[in-house]
UniProtKB/TrEMBL annotation:
Subunit relationships: Homodimer.
Key words of the record: Cytoplasm, Glycosyltransferase, Purine salvage, Transferase
Record-listed E.C. numbers: 2.4.2.7
Protein name as annotated: adenine phosphoribosyltransferase
Gene3D superfamilies (UniProt xref): 3.40.50.2020
Taxonomic source organism: Orthonyx spaldingii
Amino acid sequence: MDLCHVPASREKGWYLALMAPNVKGPNYAWLDPSRLYCHPQGLQDCVADLLQPFQGDAIDMVAGIDAMGFILGAAAAATLRKGFLAIRKAGHLCVQTAAQPYSDYSGREKVMEVRTDAISPGLRILLVDQWVETGGTMRAAIELVERLGGVVAGVAAICMENSEGGRWIQERYKCSHCVPTRLQPRFDQHQ
């Protein structure tokens, strides 16, 4: 893995090639972004591409979804000079929480939690995750934010697949992702 190589031409999504394909089977995500996160310029360009559509928008806080959304969310929060809120899988927070059940990309039933004192009415939150495949995880995060009175200022992910859930989110919220239009069909089909 060459963490120093930066291509001469850095068009949107150049860093997607740093992600590694799944070699462990169907219970895992089809791509692993860890190598992208290890590459300094790749991570910087990915975060810049995710935030570009939100330039000038009112954003009070960034929330990242457990667990890979923590990486991109924290990087986005640091870039925007905003606070970061972790939206967790159930059972990890030792404070008062609001909970939301959901089905993840593999169809497993889970519960997501967020601390109740972090979101005040009208707080504008940018939600960040690694991937929106079926949309179940992101939709649960949206429901938690809105139930606590927050406003979803936008949704950002490396990829937002053209699934029913992905379309539902894109029709209702300002969204950003890193996959160029010409590559979207390949990502939708996990190729």
